[in-house]
User: Fold these one by one.
Assistant:
Number 1:
Amino acid sequence: MVRSIPDMVAYPYPIGYDVINYYIPTITNFQEHWSLVSEQFPLYILILYLFQIGTNLQPQTLVSISGVILYGLFSVSLFLMSRRLLGLREIHSLYLTLFVIFQLPVLRTAWDLHKDVFSLALLLISVSLIYPLRAKIGRYSVIGSSIAASFAVSLDKMVGALFVASLMIYGFAVRTQHITLLSLLTVGFFVAIITSEYGNVQQSLQTLTEGAAFNPLDLQQEPYNPKNLLILFIVVNGPLLVPAGLGFMQSDNWLLRIAIVITAIGSFSWLIFPDRQSLAADRWIFLFGIFLSIFAGYGIVKYSQTRVHLGYRTYILSVILGLSVALGLIYETMPYQFASFSEIMLGWSIEPFGPATMQFNSIPVKDTSELLKTIYWINKNTPNNAIVFGEKHWRGWMDIELQGDRSFIYDSNQYGTLQSLQDCHLNYCYLVTHLSESLGYMSGKVRTERIYQNKLFTVYEAGRIYDVEGGLSPFHINQKTRNTTSLD
């Protein structure tokens, strides 16, 4: 129910950057994308594709439903982990679960990183099935834990690496049969995946960093720097540090302690490698926030049990949970146009590492209809083999909605786009821009003619200006030859 709220508010459009630029286009045109996707931990995509074949659901519907179901699975894994790993009573486990699923780093991860949520849920389920270590564990629990662990490390590279490292360190410390067996299994499975084409390291790193920028209007922004990462860490995780510290000291579960230390190291990797965006410190910061949320919830529960008078205990717990729920609902439902409200509250927006509100896909949800109108006009009023230029953030919508043999070419650098537009003299070429975007950098080099405009987007017909005998070349030249070179 918690995860379905932002989808219902955004209906009929999806939320999530990777949802529109990766999951939905890949399921829609599976054969076309498979050669690249197969090298990027494709298990989740395969599962979605099989369900799409079996149910015949529209890809957008399937991906949206999947995101909701996976958040439910993650909630169940949190409850199970609270009972087995942290030893809480049912009512306190429910409290911890509700507290965690409304936290900003958890909601941001669930916004578009569905396979991360899936992998985290299976990680928690796997270790919960073989806890407590001193109890007699049945073989079905061991088998279930092994299966869950195998899937967890197959779904996502970052979560898989965290799981493997945590289990290896923990296995050396406790030296119990079940943990040792699980450690060997996950290490072997993960190494096999990484060394095969299935988990191609270079492609995986490119996938990790491609969606880093969420502000398509600011092409000159360089968000990945120590200052921004430090501010991101403070904004996202700062409010959780004190209660999480209490929970860390109260907990005697060393596996969770090891996991949070590893994510903390990843969060501060920019101290040593400030310019290595491939290390994805921003992703580690959000992952660290998820484990901080778990320890914070545990710390709040333990503190209320030991330091708060019985008569005030329920009141204080209710107030804390109520504030968490309210802030979570604001983040889920606040229109993107009111995103500045988060800057007023927090002093700094989490963009460009994540959306200021979940009401965003590759553009604000409320602007999606205008982009779709633009694509619809292109389909109706341009040649079947037209080449469309635009921002890379729109590539998912273009992949899904462009019809015929029309192709979409994008470049994050406006001068790269300019160079390719100059080579468009043998084709029908069209440039899509935001209404407010200036075309001054094209003057004198590319001839453009505005042919369509709505509230937010403008379409230009573009052609190269070059000298021929008797003057300039004709603006419209109809040739079958097409330049299909990607600019990425």
Note: Residues 281 and 450 are 42 Å apart (CA to CA).
Number 2:
Amino acid sequence: MRRVFVIVIAALLFAGCSTAERPEGVVERWLLALNQGDAGRPDRYASSVASTAVFPGWRSTDPGAFDVVEVGHSHPCGYRGPMICDVVVPFRVVLEDGSELRSDALVGRARDEGPAPTRVFTIVPARTGQGLPSEGGPPIGSAPLGSWLEAFLVAAALVAAAELVLRAVRGSAPRR
């Protein structure tokens, strides 16, 4: 019985070790890597075509060319072509010289790559109505009260489960 309990707890804990990435996170990491120039290795997150479209001299520039990087929430993608587009992620980049680029990143994978990691494969002109957080869109870090309550309940359940495991281990330990 105790072995089954430990296996169930381990399975629940390891279920949180997912490799799925939020598309907004992929776009944000790409833009932050692009801001570091070639040293940031933006090719891990996007094609060089997409990187060059956002920042043409990224390979030979010093880090810190972006003043502002803002990423919005993803939306379903309607693009069909050689790439499988999962979502569209709006973003805004302001360079140190004050020039601004607003665009949408198409995030997905190549059809022949199978379950490859999602990447930014191209950018397209920004669609209207895709609000960024600074324009009245939902803040990235906001969570409704229900999410906080759910997190509290999960934490309480984990503490209770840990207490049960400790009691079971203490009860089965040999007495001296």
Note: The mean pLDDT is 79.
